[in-house]
Amino acid sequence: MADRIRVVVVGAKGRMGRETVKAVLNDPELELVGAVDRSLNGVLVAEVTGVETGGLQFSNDLDKTLLETKADVMVDFTNPAVIKGNIDTAIQYGVRPVVGTTGMTPEEIAAWDESCKERGIGGVIAPNFAIGAILMMRFAAEAARFLPHVEIIEMHHDQKLDAPSGTAIKTLELIAKEREKMGQGHPDEHESIAGSRGGDYEGMRVHSVRLPGYVAHQQVIFGGLGQTLTIRHDSINRESFMPGVVMSCKEVMKYEGMVYGLENLLF
Ligand SMILES: NC(=O)C1=CN([C@@H]2O[C@H](COP(=O)(O)OP(=O)(O)OC[C@H]3O[C@@H](n4cnc5c(N)ncnc54)[C@H](OP(=O)(O)O)[C@@H]3O)[C@@H](O)[C@H]2O)C=CC1
Ligand SMILES: O=C(O)C1=N[C@H](C(=O)O)C[C@H](O)C1
């Protein structure tokens, strides 16, 4: 049997981290060799995830874990505050970053593309790993060619730190490639309550809803003469992201440079 791909999960006790630990353990081509989390050093991973991990313990030391485990891939679901340092560390050690954490700039992604190429490794930054979300973004970009008036409503659980979501930003970027920058709504409109019209990206409006009960949902609404079109995606649980994470761990072994968006591995 070919060697399995050695995976370290960072943010392993978080909502996405725990799901990723299970997904890696369940895939015959992947091997879970490390679980990093800042607050559970020494605790058995099995105690938190509920799945047997052969005595693996959490570590709070990313450098040590990446080096000692001879990891091939680092999967990161942490926090905008720490993701930059984590990616730099992984690339420095020649470990391929597969990143779901949101909140980095196009300039940072371009710099990581360069450093991945210099190091001769691949990387993935995917604002959304769910295949349905990738299709929603692709269909939205297509629709914008014909219906350029568009607003996005994204809805997430109320523990989410960043707004708008990484998925909404990626959707706006993809649509912006297909339509000219333009104003929307009445030129004289004013907000009686600040922020009522949402964020503005090249004239497109984006609205972020945060409520308990939601997981991750997005509507892209297009308006035309006498009609509207709504393209909607719902992640109803975090398993929805796992096929994309697992695929990325495998695909990232095959190329050099940082890929931004799962669509680049799919289409
Ligand atoms: N690309 C995709 O498909 C998806 C991306 N995401 C993104 O993934 C990220 C994580 O989401 P989620 O799992 O829900 O978040 P959680 O808050 O559940 O988990 C985050 C994990 O990161 C750790 N962490 C947070 N801050 C720090 C820090 N300063 N230093 C070290 N570790 C830290 C947390 O540890 P502690 O508990 O000690 O704070 C926790 O284990 C978010 O950016 C989210 O937007 C989420 C879903 C899908
Ligand atoms: O924080 C989340 O939960 C999610 N974050 C990602 C984003 O910001 O788009 C992906 C998904 O929407 C869930």
TrEMBL record:
Query: What residue stretches are annotated with the Dihydrodipicolinate reductase N-terminal domain?
Result: 5-129
Q: Which residues bind NAD(+)?
A: 11-16, 37, 100-102, 126-129
The signal peptide here is none
Domain (Dihydrodipicolinate reductase C-terminal): residue spans on this chain: 132-266
Family note: Belongs to the DapB family.
Q: State what protein this is by name.
A: 4-hydroxy-tetrahydrodipicolinate reductase
Q: Which reaction does it catalyse?
A: (S)-2,3,4,5-tetrahydrodipicolinate + NAD(+) + H2O = (2S,4S)-4-hydroxy-2,3,4,5-tetrahydrodipicolinate + NADH + H(+); (S)-2,3,4,5-tetrahydrodipicolinate + NADP(+) + H2O = (2S,4S)-4-hydroxy-2,3,4,5-tetrahydrodipicolinate + NADPH + H(+)
Positions that bind NADP(+): 38
On subunit structure and binding partners, the annotation says: Homotetramer.
Instruction: Just give the chief location class.
Output: cytoplasm
What are the protein's UniProt keywords? Amino-acid biosynthesis, Cytoplasm, Diaminopimelate biosynthesis, Lysine biosynthesis, NAD, NADP, Oxidoreductase
The pathway that the record names for this protein is: Amino-acid biosynthesis; L-lysine biosynthesis via DAP pathway; (S)-tetrahydrodipicolinate from L-aspartate: step 4/4
- What EC number(s) would the UniProt record show? 1.17.1.8
> Tell me, what is one Gene Ontology molecular-function annotation carried by this entry?
4-hydroxy-tetrahydrodipicolinate reductase
Task: Return the PROSITE patterns for the record.
Answer: DAPB (PS01298)
Its biological purpose is as follows: Catalyzes the conversion of 4-hydroxy-tetrahydrodipicolinate (HTPA) to tetrahydrodipicolinate.
- One matching Pfam family is DapB_N
